[in-house]
Amino acid sequence: MEGLGFRVWQSPVDPRSQTRDPRPETLDPPLSTTLLPPTRRPTSDFPVVQRAGIGLFRRVVRTWKGVFRGIGERGIFLRDIFRGMAHPSTYVGETVHQMRAIGVDSLPLVIIVAGFLGAVTAFQAFYQLFAGVQYSVLGLLIRGSLVLELGPLLTSLVLCGRVGARMTAEIGTMRVTEQIDALETLAYDPVGYLAVPRLLAALVMLPVLVVVANFTAILTAWVTLLLATPVTSNDYITGLRLSFTPFQVIYGLIKALCFGGAIAFVCSYEGYITRAGAEGVGRSTARAVVFASVSILVLDAIVAAALAQYISS
Predict the structure, then answer these.
(1) Helix (H, G, I), strand (E, B), or coil: what is residue 9?
(2) Exposed, middle or buried by CB within 10 Å (0-12, 13-18, 19+), for 107?
(3) What is the CA 268 to chain-centroid distance, rounded?
(4) How far apart are CA 35 and CA 126, in angstroms?
């Protein structure tokens, strides 16, 4: 064709297209450098001693993870309580109702318990005296035992079973029946409506109940000594005034304040996280009473260690 005067046209060709493979270059790594995923060796493959050690280690890790998780969840719940206090319209009316349920409705039980406590304390103090001791010491012993320790502690433990169990059962039932979910749907703060009133009511009414319990116990101890022993009213009243300082009453009220806060917080939290229907409500109630009772004993030791040195000053 070129000899006849015709020229064959050819499209320009990129020389790189003749040598470049359009497929991506993939190079298989050597077998020796390939990273294989780690395989978990079954525990049953280990010897008996090692299996026991592995099981113990896993239980310890799970336990501590649960402890720290519980501390974090309770811290978040406490944060929500303080946040809910910023809206008084949510909890003022319910707080008055809870003050009646915690304080007024508990008066008969507190008076009965304190009455028998005062009588028992009077008998034990009298029959432990040895010859030559003045009877006025009985008033000092009874006042110190009741005002500083037995009055706040036993009153709080009794109310923990009555008031605390009721708090947990009420809030837990609301949780399993989805009433708390309904409050959240309506943009209503459930913690501010349920936990804050109970906490404030317990902080106010527990010291009041402790004052009533101390007065009742001291009065019944006085009557018991007058009717069953040769102790006179003058001896008993003299002992009550012996080495008395106002801080002794404040010391007992500080304990009552701490115990009331512990009961309300622990029981409200356990009710708030209730799951699994009626069985879960019962389990949460039992756990709340146990945890609140232990918290009361721990707080009692902490307050005593921190403030007992100032009792006589």
Answers:
(1) coil
(2) middle
(3) 8
(4) 82
- pTM score, two decimals? 0.80
Q: How far apart are CA 137 and CA 60, in angstroms?
A: 52
Residue with tokens 């945890």: 291
pLDDT tens-digit readout, 111-149 = 999 999 999 999 998 988 877 778 888 899 999 999 999
The tally of CA atoms less than 13 A away on the side-chain side of residue 222 is 15
Quickly tell me which residue has 């190079």 as its tokens: 27
Alpha carbon dihedral 271, 272, 278, 284, in 10-degree steps, equals: -40
Q: Return the domain boundaries, the chain.
A: 85-310
Q: Nearest to residue 310, comparing CAs of 258, 257, 254?
A: 254
Please give the single-letter amino acid code of residue 65. K
**Distance of CA 111 to CAs 122, 150, 217, 297, Å?**
16, 14, 8, 22
- CA-wise closest residue to 218 among 109, 125, 293: 125
6 φ, ψ (degrees, to nearest 5): -95, 145
Judged against a pLDDT cut of 70, whether residue 207 lies above it is answered with yes
Tokens representing 266 are 């622990």
